[in-house]
Design brief:
Main location: membrane
Family: Belongs to the TonB-dependent receptor family.
Helix content: under 10%
Number of helices: 10
Strand content: over 45%
Shape: globular
Subcellular location: Cell outer membrane
Low-confidence stretches: 1-70, 437-444
InterPro entries: Beta-barrel_TonB (IPR000531), Beta-barrel_TonB_sf (IPR036942), Plug_dom (IPR012910), Plug_dom_sf (IPR037066)
Organism: Sphingobium soli
Distance between the termini: 41 Å
């Protein structure tokens, strides 16, 4: 009998199959598991997996154990419904971040840049892991990490599991996304890459920026934006700004970094984007039976994006927009990343230590002009905004894999991760021009700033977030028989977050009109502050700081067995004890500390049956129970502005956990290596789903909040096909080693909220008395937010099986989906993703001196799809966001030494 391939032995099925090797001129692009360097050859583990009898495939740190027979297809051998995005798949798409690559996976869509929706369920129902360990989020509104911060250069492969198994955390609504970093190499290598890109709506076009600091191009501020000393003292003193002397307020205001953060500068020709990377690794023997491997990567990218955006709002959609702005916003995004991994092997024992650093900085400048009939009819409003957002993730993980004999094995893992988000000096200036109010504006044709928030405003906001996450776990497996394995495991996570947001507005009395017309830095200069007695007003609310925590203890047991030839079972149950709390910090010594806690214990069963008919055909059926917890920000009624959607959010301390019942059936036919045809159907019932609702005032101030709807259902089906067509039968020598690649998938999803008479909910505005009717906030039959009825992905390519040469067309389509409930039960706000067509070409090139390299060319959004987010009723559309995305052309060169 062939020896089973354990986690230690098949460390590379998901990772080391993509481990870089010395780059040769040949490229086995025929293997979707290869291609981590510019070319690869099938690894020994890959060949062993293909030739072995019973196979146990474990993926490092992920608790994924795959039991199968004579196959190298992980999706086929896995006991669950999984999709694997290998390094070859990632490189074929040409995406720069992992979120872009994941949108090609069956049933997945990416919303707001980096949040992955699985089968139409929002990001709250998705679980992201790194090497099997949880990740903290650098986003104030989310507990899930945005995947667009992960460059593809540090990710070796991605596994998406859509059916729950007890070894995963219980917050598994739509699925789990396990990112696997590059594995320890078997040979020494070094790669250096550079690239550049241009966008038709941004590069060489008009845009806006501001000075900030001299080191902004690095993504690191030179400390210029640090909170000023007097303001920091005021935050720490616990004295409301209303009780601070006016002279002390002025002293604080005069310490603000003024002109460098407030003066908007027009740039007539924005620069092209640039990126660079370096990665390498080596391995060496220590003693007679141990081997040590080291891998390191580093990357830098600097990107620009300008959006000429139409933003509207309406109290009654049929009557048209009552608020309408045209906004030009320019974002300069700088990303710095690094990875250091060390691995040790001796015998069948393995240790792996992985360290990841990602810093993503966004420098934003915008200018908007428009009208708001809810304030002054016929007046023009000019709004200028500047901001600086730092997101940072530091993650260190340790994994140990120990095999005591042929039957008993132990896997242990532990990790610490820290995420931070700092947003100092979010500045906004509002100027008003009106011919109808001569007392305010005797000139009539100039913008003025009265600093009274009805006719002009100026504000500055400081935000900070820090989250620490400790995690650990162990799995003990015992093989009773070759086809019967039992596993017992324990997992622990402890998350702690502190978040603060201080919003300060400038206050003036009887400011002369000539002064109101000054540009921002003169308007708020030291001389103006002192001469005209400007003060500060605190709009942060009574609790500008909150602490949050989530601690989960989980124990689980699993059985994997072959009941009789062809029929296998993967069954288990997870017990999960979760304690989640959010506490408002009593900064101003009011004597009250808002506190909300959600404490629940769950038994979460899961079972999957797989019947292998033979000939590559098999059928699956699975059922499970999972949960979804509220996110931290949603549990406290603290205001927050989401700058991406330009929306005002407020949490709800009355939210409760959601419970999901899941069912899947699936048919799979594997025609050959990496060739497959699959079809599946799925159904989910959600009790107490957390949904957004929106309210709007007569001044067009829109507030989005959260509440538990009574119930929701979701169902649909998926089909997926992957096929290679060799062209060696053609007469031309050009086609002798080439083949056509055909990859396609389609997902149909339907969901609806269930709201009946007598159903109630608890909004954040609730105080006492009878609970409000759920129908006041949710419409029966409405789809879940984020769910598209149709998702389509098609890849058509031509590639060489002997050397690196790939040309691929990629088409993605998503039908409209709800992004937020319509204000005051008006029509829902929908996003229209539409159709996107991309082209990616990769070509191996030999440089002088025999140096192997890869040249990549990309054309993104060839058809020029626009972004549209709107309400519609009676043939009238209200655009919350509408702008041109533009077409992006990119080229890069990677050289291997």
């Amino acid at each position: 009998m062939s020896k089973p391939l354990t986690l230690a032995r098949l460390l590379l099925i998901s990772t080391a199959l993509v481990a870089p090797v010395a780059m040769a001129q040949t490229d086995t692009s025929s293997s979707s598991a290869g291609d981590a360097g510019l070319s690869t050859t099938p690894s020994a583990a890959d060949e062993a997996a293909a030739q072995s009898g019973d196979v146990d495939v474990s993926i490092p740190g992920s608790d994924i154990v795959v039991t199968g027979r004579r196959t190298s297809n992980i999706s086929q051998a896995a006991p669950q419904v999984v999709n694997v995005l290998s390094a070859a798949d990632i490189k074929r798409t040409g995406e720069g971040d992992i979120a872009g690559s994941l949108q090609r996976v069956t049933g997945l869509s990416v919303v707001s840049g980096g949040y992955v929706y699985v089968r139409g369920l929002g990001d709250r129902y998705s679980l992201a892991l790194l090497n099997g360990s949880p990740l903290p989020s650098p986003e104030p509104l989310k507990r899930v990490v945005p995947l667009d911060i992960f460059p593809t250069s540090v990710i070796a492969s991605t596994l998406v599991q859509k059916s729950f198994s007890a070894n995963f955390p219980g917050e598994f609504g739509g699925g789990v996304i396990n990112l696997t970093t590059k594995a320890i190499p078997t040979e020494s290598y070094l790669e250096i890459g550079v690239g550049s890109s241009a966008n038709t709506e941004t590069s060489g076009q008009l845009g806006y920026t501001y000075y900030g600091s001299k080191s902004d191009w690095t993504g690191f501020d030179d400390s210029s934006r640090d909170v000023p000393p007097l303001l920091k003292d005021a935050f720490g003193a616990g004295v409301p700004f209303a009780n601070i002397d006016r002279s002390d307020q002025q002293a604080i205001a005069m310490q603000f970094l003024n002109s460098k953060t407030s003066v908007l500068q027009r740039t007539n020709s924005l620069p092209f984007n640039f990126s660079g990377s370096i990665n390498g690794g080596t391995a060496f023997d220590v003693g007679s039976d141990a081997r040590v491997g080291i891998i390191a990567t580093a990357g830098y990218s600097n990107k620009w994006r300008t959006r000429d955006n139409l933003q509207q709002a309406s109290l009654t959609v049929e009557e048209g927009a009552g608020k309408s702005y045209n906004q030009v916003v320019t974002d300069n995004q700088v990303t710095v990343n690094g990875l250091l991994g060390v691995g040790v092997e001796w015998g069948e024992q393995k240790l792996r230590w992985t360290n990841l650093y990602i810093r993503d900085t966004l420098k934003r400048a915008s200018l908007a002009i428009g009208q708001n009939d809810g304030q002054i009819q016929g007046a023009d409003y000019l709004t200028q905004q500047t901001a600086w957002y730092e997101r940072q993730l530091i993650d260190t993980q340790f994994v140990g894999e120990f095999k005591f004999d042929d039957a008993l094995s132990l896997d242990v893992r532990g990790g610490y991760a820290n995420s931070q988000r700092e947003a100092p000096y979010e500045r906004e200036f509002v100027y008003v021009r009106s011919n109808r109010d001569l007392d305010i504006d005797p000139v009539g044709d100039r913008f003025i700033n009265a600093l009274n928030r009805q006719r002009g405003d100026a504000s500055v906001t400081f935000s900070d977030l820090n989250e620490d996450l400790w995690s650990g776990g162990a799995d003990l497996s015992y093989k009773i028989a070759p086809s019967f394995t039992v596993t017992a495991g324990y997992a622990y996570t402890d998350t702690k977050r502190t978040s603060s947001r201080y919003e300060l507005h400038f206050d003036a009395v009887n400011l002369p009109v000539p002064v109101q017309q000054l540009r921002p830095d003169y308007l708020l200069s030291d001389a103006t502050i002192q001469l005209y007695d400007l003060g500060l007003l605190d709009f942060s609310g009574p609790y500008p700081v909150y602490d949050a925590a989530l601690r989960v203890h989980a124990g689980y047991g699993q059985v994997k067995a072959e009941l009789f030839p062809g029929l296998s079972i993967d069954a288990g149950v997870r017990y999960e004890n979760g304690r989640q709390s959010v506490t408002g910090v009593d900064v101003y010594s009011t004597g009250e500390t808002p506190f909300n806690q959600v404490k629940n214990d769950y038994w979460l069963p899961a079972v999957t049956l797989t019947y292998d008919v033979g000939g590559g055909l098999q059928f699956r059926a699975s059922g499970s129970k999972t949960i979804a917890r509220p996110q931290f920000r949603e549990l406290i009624a603290q205001p927050f502005i989401d700058t991406e959607s330009n929306r005002f959010y407020r949490g709800n301390p009355f939210l409760q956990d959601s419970e999901l019942w899941n069912a899947d059936i699936r048919a799979e036919w594997y025609m050959g290596r990496d060739e497959r045809l699959t079809a599946s159907a799925f159904y989910k019932k959600i009790d107490n789903p957390i949904e957004t609702f929106t309210t709007i005032t007569d001044t067009y101030a829109v507030t989005t909040s959260f509440a538990n709807a009574p119930e929701a259902t979701l169902y649909g089906f998926e089909v997926e096909a992957q096929k290679y067509i060799p062209l060696d039968g053609m007469d031309s020598n050009f086609f002798q080693t080439r083949r056509v690649v055909l990859i396609g998938n389609y997902t149909y999803t339907q969901s609806e909220l269930k709201v009946s008479d007598g159903d109630t909910t608890i909004p954040y505005t609730y105080t006492t008395g009878d609970l409000p009717a759920a129908s006041d906030y949710f419409v029966d039959g409405a789809p879940l937010t984020g769910q598209s009825d149709h998702l389509v992905n098609v890849q058509i390519g031509l590639e060489d099986t002997d050397k690196l040469s790939q040309q691929t067309l990629l088409l993605t389509y998503a039908s409209p989906r709800v992004t937020s409930r319509g204000p005051n039960l008006q029509p829902d706000i929908k996003e229209k993703p539409g159709l996107t067509l991309d082209f990616v070409a990769r070509q191996g090139v030999t440089l002088p001196g025999g140096i192997n390299s890869e040249f990549k060319f990309e054309a993104r959004n060839i058809t020029g799809r626009k972004y549209q987010e709107f309400q519609e009723a009676g043939g009238t559309k209200i655009f919350y966001n509408r702008y041109k995305i533009g077409t992006t052309i990119a080229a890069s060169l990677t050289v291997a030494f």
